[in-house]
Every structure is written in structure tokens, then in C-alpha cells.
Specification:
It is a single chain. The chain is α+β, with helices and mostly antiparallel strands. The chain has four domains: 103 residues, no CATH class; 123 residues, no CATH class; 124 residues, no CATH class; 127 residues, no CATH class. It is built from eleven helices and 26 strands. A seven-stranded mixed β-sheet has the order 5-8-2-3-4-1-9, with no helix packed on it. α7 packs antiparallel against α8 and α8 packs antiparallel against α9. The chain is elongated.
């Protein structure tokens, strides 16, 4: 059986639709779109530009620092610090054109730019060993670096580094002063400044003035001690060693080891109102050699007198003290040599200054008025009428220095040749003058025909011994002749045998005294022996003088060094 398909319907039998007359059109956009991949380089460029701008902003300025040596400087590694905080780095290190200096270029941080002024200082921090101590030990581990100390003034980009670290940092409160001295002595950078034994400052540096050839020493006194420096303050050197000899014996005192090594400066301020107002910064003071010089330089009344001493004044120098019974009443102002054309003579005047402030006064009613020059001269004139006399005296037996000593000697006339002296002077009584006088006497004695005189005297004594039958007289005359022979030999060598001279003098005096006593008893009535009696009297006087001198030297052997005391 055959399956037949469905019967055709009227609808399906219709004709299919005809195709369109034109194909369909596709609308294509011609505008190009930006891909997100292109934004990545742009963003990266923007970020790089921003980072570069920040780097340039934070980079800071570039400066040039000149060093005397390149020790410890290394490009790219040496840091510039302040209070141990990095502020920059050394970028390049090179020599100058003349090879005398080292020029370093450094890049600083932005925060340090506003502190680069004219007063800014740089120096290399490295281990340093000096008399003042040890510094920079931390650089043994961390390495050498350059320290920066900010300062004031105008902006600056070129600097000269310091050769040594500054003693005082700029941020330390206090005041600076200048001391003027003839010589630097033992002072150095870092030497301490003391006030009553307490260190109040340091020596910052020194320089030599080419105009007056004096040394200017810069010191710094820390706060709160800067107020101690007044207009009337005095400064002197501290050697670190003090040696004094007084009635209590010898005293030896030393300061700290730092003072012994570096020296020091002592500050002293007198009480008000003598101290004056506070000293301003960089006020100039005189640096004296010692405390005595500083005390004598104070503003006080000085009355000057001119003195002329007989003989030599060797050992007397300006600044020597003027004593009145052992107490200081002034100082020697000048010692000079003058030529008088009228008399054609050389004179050596000595100018002394009396200082009445060194003499305490008592009043029935205290008026409080200081003495003027007229009152001082009236006082001195009154004391001269009472016997005040001036003489040279030994001040130091070891150095041979002399001083002027005043004492009362009523009835003693002034020495010849001192007519120009304003105050009466007398010959010195110290050991040097005694020895000089003894030398003159020895010269005169040596000029005499002493051998012939002693020979004649021996012959005379032998004749007297023959005439006198007394055995005692004969023995005495023999002893006297022997003593005279010893005295003759001793006088020729008196300069070298002074102790033996004293012993011989005592023997001569004893023998001569016994002989003369016997001779006076035997020859007292002999008129024909007048010449011999005169000789005996002279011998008697000589024996008495020898005995007095020997007795005095036996009781006071110190007179050989100190001179005869009243």
C-alpha cells in the first residue's frame, strides 16, 4: 500500500515571495576608539615627572667647601652632619689649580639650604689626640665626617673649612673678650679661664698683630659667668705652679694637669664700685704676667721720687718693690743711665713710685677722703726729718735682684754724691757691699809694702824682746810674730778662705791683746820708746777691730748672706 502525501491545499499552492530589489546595507562606524593600554605609559610618565620634581625639590642646593687637606674625604661616602644628623654628602673631591688646597663639592638637603649663611662653619671630625684631651673617638667606628655649624648673615654657597674644630660652639651662651699680651707664652687653644679656681671659660684662639707686634688672645666666658667680667677686671697668666718662701717655710702648689700642659688665664674682679659696669662683647683687656703685675697696674695714686745711690746698682730693675721696714709701699718705676753735659758725669737715677693706698691710715675722726699728692709729699718730708733713709738691699740671693729699702737712721748723713736725690740715700749694708768694701780694703793693703812692714815689725818686736827680760813678754811677742805671719799669708788668699780668715783673726786678736797688755805694763814709763808705743797703739786698735769682727761673725754667721741687721 502506497502512502500518499497530504493533499495540496489552496494556500500552499500559492507562488513564493519575490526577492528584494536591493541587498541589505550594513552601517559601519568610522570613529576610532582609544584603547586603555595607551593610558599606562601616560600614567607612568606623570608619576615619573612628579617623582623627579619631588627629587629636585628635596635635593637641596650644591655648595663648594675648600679644605687644606683631603684626609678623610671620599666622594659619595663622606657625610655632612649636624648634631649627628645627615644634612648632605660630598659628591666630588679635587685639587685646586695650584695644588695647594682640596675643593669638595657637596649636595645638601633642602632643609639645610636656609642655614647656609656667611657665619656657617665646616670642619672635619676625626680622632684627635692633644694635650687638652681626646676627641672624635666615635669616628673610629662610623668613619670620618664633616661637621656643619649653622651661622648667621647673608646666603652663601662657598665656604672655607676650619683646620681645627672650634673650642666653643656657636649655640653655647656666653660672651667673647680679647686679651692683649706681649708674648703668647704657654697659652694655646682650649686653655682654661679661671675665676677663684673655677673654670668659667676657654681660650678660643690667638693671632699676632702686624701693627704693634702684640699678641691678641680671644677668650670665651660661658653663661652665667659672663657677668663676672667688668670694666675694672684684671687678667693674668696661670702657670700652674706656685712656689713661695715665707716665715712658714716653703710652699709648693700646683694646678690641674690641664693647666700645667696648656697654661691658663686667671680672672679677677674687684668689689663694687671699683669694678665698674659690665664689659661689652669683645672688650680688650691687658693680660699681665702674674698677679703682682696685675695688682700694681691698677689705677691708684702714685707719687714719684728721684733717688741716686752711691756705687753700683746692679740687680735693680723696674718693677722691684720699695719697702719700708719690710712692707711694700711702692715700686721702682725706672732705672736709666744719664749723662750730665755740664759736669761731664754719668749718673744712674732711680725713679720710685710711692703708693699711699698701700698704707693704712687711722684717724680720730674718719673723714673718708683719700690722700692727694701734696699730702703724701708732706708725709714723706716729715718722715725724712725723723731719719728716714733709702738704701739698696738684696731681694733674692739666688738671682741677685735688688730692691729699695727705707728705714729710720737718725743722725746718719746722706751719702756723698747724692745731691740730686730727692730723698736721702745711704750706702748699702748687704753682703755685696760688704764684699766690695772688703775688696777695696784688700787692694789698698796689697798696695802697701806689707812684707817690709812685717819684717820691720818683727825686728822691732825682737828688739823689745831682747830689752825686756820678762819670759812672758818674750813668749807673747813670739806668738804675735807668728800670728802676724799667718795673717799675712791669709790676707793674700782671703777671697777663697773666708772661714779660715775668721779663725785667724780671732787668734791674732788674742795674741796681740796679750802682748800689748804686757808691753803696755813694761813700756808705759819709757820716754825713749815713743815710736814703739805709737806702733803698739795702732796694733791695739787693729786687734780690737779684728776681735769685734770675729765675735760678730761667730754670733751671726748669717750676716755673710743677709748683711748686717740693725
Amino acid at each position: 500500500m502506497t502512502d500518499a502525501g497530504p493533499p495540496p491545499s489552496s494556500a500552499s499552492s500559492a507562488a513564493p515571495p519575490s526577492p528584494p530589489s536591493h541587498p541589505p546595507e550594513v552601517e559601519v562606524s568610522t570613529r576610532r576608539r582609544l584603547s586603555f593600554l595607551w593610558l599606562l605609559p601616560l600614567v607612568a610618565a606623570l608619576i615619573a615627572g612628579w617623582l623627579g620634581w619631588r627629587w629636585l625639590e628635596d635635593r637641596g642646593p650644591q655648595i663648594v667647601i675648600t679644605f687644606q687637606s683631603g684626609d678623610g674625604l671620599e666622594a659619595g661616602r663622606t657625610r655632612i652632619k649636624h648634631k649627628n644628623v645627615d644634612l648632605g654628602v660630598i659628591e666630588t673631591v679635587r685639587l685646586s689649580d695650584d695644588l695647594s688646597q682640596v675643593i669638595a663639592t657637596a649636595r645638601m638637603d633642602r632643609t639645610a639650604g636656609r642655614h647656609l649663611k656667611e657665619g656657617t662653619r665646616f670642619w672635619v671630625v676625626a680622632p684627635r689626640l692633644s694635650l687638652g684631651g681626646v676627641s672624635g673617638l666615635s669616628t673610629v667606628v662610623s668613619g670620618t665626617y664633616v661637621e656643619m655649624e649653622p651661622g648667621g648673615g647673608e646666603d652663601r654657597r662657598e665656604f672655607d673649612a676650619l683646620d681645627e674644630p672650634p673650642v666653643i660652639r656657636a649655640d653655647v651662651p656666653g660672651r667673647s673678650f680679647s686679651l692683649k699680651a706681649e708674648q703668647l707664652g704657654s697659652l694655646a687653644q682650649g686653655s682654661p679661664v679661671y675665676f677663684r679656681g673655677v673654670q668659667v671659660g676657654e681660650v678660643m684662639g690667638y693671632n699676632l698683630s702686624p701693627q704693634d707686634r702684640t699678641v691678641s688672645v680671644s677668650i670665651f666666658v660661658r653663661a652665667p659667668y659672663e657677668g663676672l667680667v667688668r670694666e675694672g677686671s684684671r687678667f693674668w697668666r696661670s702657670s700652674g705652679v706656685q712656689f713661695t718662701a715665707g716665715a712658714e717655710g716653703l710652699k709648693f702648689q700646683t694646678e690641674s694637669l690641664k693647666t700645667l700642659a696648656l697654661g691658663g688665664v686667671v680672672l679677677e674682679t674687684p668689689p663694687d664700685p671699683e669694678a665698674g659696669g659690665q664689659a661689652m662683647d669683645w672688650t680688650t683687656f691687658t693680660l699681665y704676667e702674674d698677679q703682682t703685675s696685675a695688682a700694681s697696674a691698677r689705677d691708684r695714686l702714685r707719687v714719684r721720687y728721684r733717688l741716686e745711690f752711691p756705687g753700683s746698682i746692679q740687680g735693680l730693675q723696674a718693677g722691684a718693690p720699695v719697702l719700708l721696714r719690710g712692707l711694700t709701699v711702692g715700686h721702682v718705676a725706672a732705672v736709666r743711665l744719664e749723662y750730665d753735659e755740664a759736669t761731664q758725669e754719668l749718673r744712674i737715677p732711680v725713679d720710685i713710685d710711692f703708693e699711699p693706698d698701700l698704707v693704712a691710715r687711722t684717724y680720730s675722726v674718719v673723714d673718708g677722703k683719700p690722700m692727694d699728692e701734696a699730702a703724701v709729699r708732706k708725709l714723706i718730708a716729715t718722715q725724712v726729718e725723723k731719719g728716714l733713709r733709702a738704701r739698696l738691699a738684696s731681694g733674692n740671693l739666688l738671682t741677685g735682684q735688688k730692691l729699695v729699702s727705707f728705714d729710720y737712721a737718725p743722725g746718719v748723713p746722706p751719702s756723698p754724691g747724692s745731691e740730686r736725690s730727692e730723698l736721702p740715700t745711704v750706702a748699702s749694708s748687704d753682703l755685696d757691699s760688704i764684699m766690695a768694701s772688703a775688696g777695696v780694703v784688700m787692694e789698698k793693703v796689697s798696695a802697701l809694702p806689707l812684707d817690709a812692714l812685717i819684717a820691720d815689725l818683727r825686728g822691732t818686736l825682737q828688739s823689745v824682746s831682747g830689752l825686756a827680760g820678762s819670759p812672758d813678754l818674750a813668749r807673747s811677742l813670739a806668738a804675735l810674730a807668728k800670728a802676724l805671719g799667718s795673717a799675712d799669708a791669709l790676707m793674700r788668699d782671703a777671697d777663697r778662705q773666708l772661714p779660715d780668715l775668721v779663725k785667724s783673726l780671732r787668734g791674732v786678736a788674742t795674741a796681740a791683746q796679750g802682748t800689748l797688755n804686757s808691753a803696755n805694763g813694761l813700756l808705759g814709763g819709757g820716754g825713749g820708746q815713743a815710736d814703739l808705743a805709737g806702733v803698739m797703739r795702732q796694733l791695739n786698735d787693729a786687734a780690737r777691730s779684728f776681735r769685734v769682727l770675729a765675735d760678730y761673725l761667730e754670733r751671726h754667721p748669717e750676716a755673710l748672706l743677709r748683711g748686717k741687721r740693725p
